[in-house]
Amino acid sequence: MAYDLTVIGTGPGGYVCAIRAAQLGMKVAVVEKDKTFGGTCLNVGCIPSKALLHASELFEEAGHKFGGMGIKVPAPKLDLPAMMKFKDEGVAGNVNGVAFLLKKNKIDAFIGHGRITAPGKIEVTVADGKSQTVETKNIVIATGSDVARLKGIEIDEKRIVSSTGALALDKVPAKLLVVGAGVIGLELGSVWRRLGAQVTVVEFLDRILPGMDAEVGKQFQRILQKQGMTFKLSSRVTAIDLSGKTLKASVEPAAGGAAETIEADVALVAIGRVPYTEGLGLTELGVAMERGRVTVDAHYATNVAGIYAIGDVIAGPMLAHKAEDEGVAVAEIIAGQAGHVNYDAIPNVIYTYPEVATVGKTEEELKSAGVAYTAGKFPFTANGRAKVNQTTDGFVKILADAKTDRVLGVHIVGREAGEMIHEACVLIEFGGSAEDLARTCHAHPTRSEAIKEAALAVGKRAIHM
Ligand SMILES: Cc1cc2nc3c(=O)[nH]c(=O)nc-3n(C[C@H](O)[C@H](O)[C@H](O)COP(=O)(O)OP(=O)(O)OC[C@H]3O[C@@H](n4cnc5c(N)ncnc54)[C@H](O)[C@@H]3O)c2cc1C
What is the pTM of this model? Predict the structure, then answer.
């Protein structure tokens, strides 16, 4: 039987695309090479990392903060296997949820490695080498991404780990070396620091969180340092010697010069991710690619008719919700509707303590584009709820067009920033102004009042500062 649409990959891009297409009346199939649905995000990404971030944050709070609130508890003891079980149960709940949704939407699943042999034809090979061909009118490639590797440094997932190994260590390393000060390195570095590791982060650039607003990066680094994380910026790890009991990493200044040695029990390589297209048959088909990513037009169509691509495998931020929104958009486009993603309104969140959440433009982007803007800033030290709960780290910054007052970017460092950012996303989506936000009533006492105050600060009229 020929399907209307077959999606290769069941990460957040793929399974959401399949469900939306089924809702629109298409006969849909998915192809997945792994044992479980959900892709990187549900199995070894967003979901397990958030379980460990949650559990380790409470562990640290119980040890250091409960006493100050009058809650007397014995010093908490870590039961790492139980914490890992908590994480695994959370993952299982989520991947089973995807299996349920696929079934509910009458989507057929082919388990095996998919290779596109011709437009409309996918060969699915299972582990024993047997294969079958799936016939389909349209194909969406949603094969995601894989860990980026450092030349000459082999990941064994025991002592030199990627994020996948760092989510499943069987004991807390006394010393953890994190290579790369991006989101994944800082999240997983935070997990293991809270559980007792001494964490050193080495970053090639002269700042953490490359691509994010520079002021956010600077303040966030200061907070993480206060928590006990050590940073070595403008430096690169060139080799790791595994011969001794501890790892010995050679770290050189990025600009060149004498190397120093940093010892560690575990090294986490978190230098980014690369699009995954192995064995898909794209070169043979002549599908255009650029720097490993599948090239698509504004409708997610590749240069080969009937083949589309979404998510981490194409350009843009490697984020689960970006992949999901593209999944919905491409399904609607294939159904003849006007699917669309607004790339100016995609939030980016780091789930550490405090959290970092941003949407829209950074100050650096506005400056380099020559856009005149006004910045309104409000610190959590002046927010009633943050003050009374003694969680005052961070600030809200709103960047608005100097002429029109339209909000172009919102940047938050602070507890629960990842939940707070969405009113800014809605505002940007609707083309709202700082004035709109400032005149919107916010419940008291909430941390979100800091967003309203930052909007007031754009017009230099914050009340509580
Ligand atoms: C540690 C970590 C934490 C993260 N945390 C967050 C977060 O908090 N928030 C966030 O937004 N993003 C987060 N991300 C990023 C997020 O996981 C990705 O952006 C997202 O999973 C991309 O979705 P996708 O559908 O494009 O691909 P993926 O989720 O990578 O899924 C691709 C699927 O395709 C399958 N596949 C590949 N090739 C084939 C083939 N030939 N045949 C059959 N199947 C195939 C794979 O097995 C996989 O299941 C995190 C990533 C990591 C590693």
Answer: 0.97
